[in-house]
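Late entry, evening session. Most of the bench is empty. Finally got around to the prediction I had been postponing all week. Sequence below, unchanged from the version circulated by S.P.
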Amino acid sequence: MSATHAPAAASRTTHGATAASGANLTLAVVGATGQVGAVMRRLLEERDFPATTVRFFSSARSAGTTLPWKGGEVTVEDVATADLTGIHIALFSAGATASREHAPRFAAAGAVVVDNSSAWRMDPDVPLVVSEVNPVAAATRPKGIIANPNCTTMAAMPVLKVLHDSAGLERLIVSTYQAVSGTGLAGVEELAGQVRAVVGQDLEALTHDGGALTFPEPVKYVAPIAFDVVALAGSLLDDGEGETDEEKKLRNESRKILDLPDLRVSGTCVRVPVFTGHSLAINAEFARPISPEQAREILSAAPGVELADVPTPLQAAGKDPSYVGRIRADQSAPEGHGLALFVSNDNLRKGAALNTIQIAEALIEKGYKARALAA
């Protein structure tokens, strides 16, 4: 079966109109040739997303190539020059620069944009949405754009929201263990290349001498990532506070999603030699008492969450839930008011592609569209 990629005729109505189904829906995927774009395309097929027409976009470099779609091929269009007429929903995963340039064009042409980059997350006129946490926020979007949070924030939110609803979240101390796929294909290739380069060397020599092996010069990270951890995930910000952008995102995005502007958050974001699957060690302090037993009961029924004795990134890779375990009392918090727990989540799947698609599904199923879909 072939899919079309020509613009489809569409009706337009005023802000706030709704439609009951995805009939005659045209979906755009911007950044379709990238790492997250590939996951997005796969998930759209797996979930049988109700689009009759799908259009794939990329930069001029990849325009004209074809990508598989439901047994056929779709020609990739140049995002900068294509006619955007007739697109109802546009899923963006092309990076912040491309999103700042092109997302407003898609919105102006009548599409609802769901953006996976950092470009719009803290814009007060753009809702920041996690599908299990605050889907209703997607209904109000003056710019026609909805933002997807950063992948580490995403992993934590389904866990923390239900605990907050029960006990009133006041403070978070978080250490992250972020996979190299969070920095794109270049990060994956750097880890794989460093591992391949030392095959045949005496790996056990690292037990006593960290300089015993010769690694290729690091490019993506400030130090070799193979057999090591790098306590600098993201880029240092020039604001005098010594934080990286990843650490700042964790604080600001958590506050916005949970609607807790005064939430105290301290994060240390670390890159680890794992291909896919971000993990977080979380110490959470609450206004009201909450026990580990209560937390397990609450989390066992939480959407997007699965309990695990010892969550690991390998367990999470290729799966949808945030796996949470090692749930215990935080002995450093006021008695009964703190929890320590560990979360692992697939940073490419739920951390990026899946949440974007789930938001788009809500636009159709719950009638949160800014403009009517074609009948």
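Two things to note before I forget:
The domain at 26-149+353-365 is CATH 3.40.50.720 (Rossmann fold).
Residues 34 and 151 are 16 Å apart (CA to CA).
Will write this up properly tomorrow.
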